[in-house]
């Protein structure tokens, strides 16, 4: 499979090209929106490897989650606990998420399973779109573009791994780029339910369809 640097470089290049093109076509409302899309596309380009134990994306993900979770707990308990207790709480919370949750996640997932599929790309697209719209309060169109950039980066990652696998004759065709991992039926059902569930809370696609139709994308 392609290594981390290759995934990062290609995802960054593709996302930058699309973001610049979107901005120049006046589909992005401001330059900072194009920059955001570039970042999200780059993130999407490394996301599929979060199910690979000890991979850079996995370490980055659980380190970030550990810091965020521990900091959140400390903030909520700031007035109730002493400085020493707060320090201990932060350390214990961080280690629990960074190593405990990470270890559990690795046990429950299989590398190149459903996280390495188009189904997962859709799931992360919808999660990004819904979060951008409901939590960050970004407009419908910008929220959808945010989600689509994550999906594009995600699929670029899958395509690279597929090309490397087939080109080096290490794995069979379709091992990296697939609709879903049908060998893991329970996981697939959970992914489908999660994808449909998140899609239900995404904003309207009316503005997105108008933009894509205007540029003759479909």
TrEMBL record:
The chain crosses the membrane at residues 7-24, 30-47, 59-75, 81-101, 113-135, 141-160, 181-202. Keywords: Membrane, Transmembrane, Transmembrane helix. InterPro entries: YdjM-like. This is Membrane-bound metal-dependent hydrolase. It comes from Candidatus Thiomargarita nelsonii.
């Amino acid at each position: 499979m392609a290594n981390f640097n290759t995934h990062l470089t290609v995802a960054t290049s593709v996302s930058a090209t699309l973001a610049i093109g979107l901005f120049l076509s006046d589909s992005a409302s401001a330059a900072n929106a194009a920059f955001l899309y570039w970042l999200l596309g780059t993130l999407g380009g490394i996301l599929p490897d979060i199910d690979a134990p000890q991979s850079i994306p996995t370490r980055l993900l659980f380190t970030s989650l550990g810091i965020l979770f521990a900091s959140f707990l400390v903030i909520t308990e700031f007035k109730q606990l002493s400085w020493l207790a707060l320090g201990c709480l932060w350390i214990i919370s961080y280690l629990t998420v960074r190593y405990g949750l990470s270890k559990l996640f690795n046990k429950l997932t299989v590398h190149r399973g459903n996280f390495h599929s188009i189904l997962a790309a859709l799931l992360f697209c919808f999660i990004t779109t819904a979060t951008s719209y409901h939590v960050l309060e970004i407009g419908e169109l910008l929220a959808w573009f945010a989600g689509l950039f994550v999906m594009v980066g995600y699929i670029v990652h899958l395509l690279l791994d597929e090309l490397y696998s087939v080109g080096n004759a290490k794995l069979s065709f379709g091992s990296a780029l697939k609709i879903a991992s049908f060998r893991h039926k329970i996981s697939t059902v959970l992914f489908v339910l999660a994808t449909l569930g998140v899609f239900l809370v995404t904003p309207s696609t009316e503005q997105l369809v108008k933009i894509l139709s205007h540029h003759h994308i479909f």
